[in-house]
Amino acid sequence: RSGFVSIIGRPNVGKSTLMNRFVGEKISIVTPKAQTTRHRIAGILSSENYQIVFIDTPGILDPAYKLQEKMMEAMHKAVQDADVVLYLTDITESPDEVKSRISSLQLQVPCMLAINKIDLLKSAAGEDKEQTVESFLQAYQAFPAVVKILPISAQEGWGLDQLLAALIEYL
Ligand code: GDP
Ligand code: MG
């Protein structure tokens, strides 16, 4: 199997970190500062059974400025090229906001949702980590715009095997 996966989402949710994890090299710039990826950046993950081209994007912005408008264009182009769109969010973004952003994109291809930075719940929620993850997933119940929802930690590499397997199914 082979195909294109475009990674989209708000700035700073971990898109570049995730892509670097998948393709195994630092080709996408990761910073705590938002909007450091101005263009689309592609990385390839190959194995015996599949080849995936990941497209990292500048992220979904509110295009109030000319540069941001350009960056939104890059995002829309990446989405058009994709076999699957991977919408990345993190534990700080509200599910309602994520839902309305995904809906407004009116995607023509399957969209998978990954909730990143689950590792931060450890410190925030202590013993209740599982429950907090559960409540995030609950918030997306009956949201037909996404084909699957997966909690991950791009930084710690947690949940990425499951995410990869899920993506491959849609190539
Ligand atoms: P992008 O703007 O969506 O491409 O986000 P980046 O990949 O540049 O990451 C933004 C910040 O979030 C960086 O400081 C990353 O180190 C951090 N980050 C990314 N993934 C994780 C994660 O799984 N857990 C935590 N705690 N931080 C993360
Ligand atoms: Mg980035």
UniProtKB/TrEMBL annotation:
Residues 56-59 are annotated as: G3. GO terms for cellular component: cytosol; plasma membrane. Residues 152-154 are annotated as: G5. It is found in: Cytoplasm; Cell membrane. Residues 116-119 are annotated as: G4. Keywords: Cell membrane, Cytoplasm, GTP-binding, Membrane, Nucleotide-binding, Ribosome biogenesis, RNA-binding, rRNA-binding. It is a peripheral membrane protein. Residues 1-171 form the Era-type G domain. Residues 9-16 are annotated as: G1. GTP binds at residues 9-16, 56-60, 116-119. Belongs to the TRAFAC class TrmE-Era-EngA-EngB-Septin-like GTPase superfamily. Era GTPase family. An essential GTPase that binds both GDP and GTP, with rapid nucleotide exchange. Plays a role in 16S rRNA processing and 30S ribosomal subunit biogenesis and possibly also in cell cycle regulation and energy metabolism. This is GTPase Era. The lineage of its organism: Bacteria, Pseudomonadati, Bacteroidota, Chitinophagia, Chitinophagales. The chain holds residues 3 to 173 of 298 of the full protein.
